[in-house]
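User: Um, any thoughts?
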Amino acid sequence: APVTLPGWAIQPPPADPAPTEPPPGPIEPAPAPRRPPPTLPRPWALHLAIGLEAGVLPGPSPSLELGADLPLGRRARLRLSAATALPREASGPLGRATLSWLTARAALVGTWAAGPFLLGPLAELEVGALGGRGAGVSNPLAGWSAWLAVGGGAFAAVPLGSRVTLGLEASARVPLWRPAYVIEPAGEVHQAAPVVGRAALRLRLEFP
């Protein structure tokens, strides 16, 4: 209340106005969640491949491959495996033979992430054997010959979980020599093609 003195009236100073809050700014929308890229393969993995071999034996032949791979840096891996194909029969005018193929395979595989997929090239070396057993002749014999081939290809895979991937790959190889299967006295019944190929579906199980 004002204090009154003779001839004077003292008023208290006016109170400071209450501070006002600044108006809220525009609300920014939350960023959309990012889909995590597929992880690169773990240190080692087991794999199983079912495919089709062409050019090694007479006609296309179903094949089976089992192996493991090991890391050679962040994006390169060494894959070691053993493979075989279903025996096929070759025939000539005077005889026939059942032909088989076994090989060990070493492949250098590169891996890059591309969206939900894993992609990469591969270079491979095969060391194995081709075998045949004659039939339909008076003195059928069996024999084996060395197999050596080099080549390359590519693959694409998609993760099915944190440890499993399913991929499709294709490759072409060049035999460094091509043994011929000969049945006496029928003559030659088969020789591997100058370029052989493979298409395979590969299941990989990765380990930490």
Notes: The chain is about 0% helix and 60% strand.
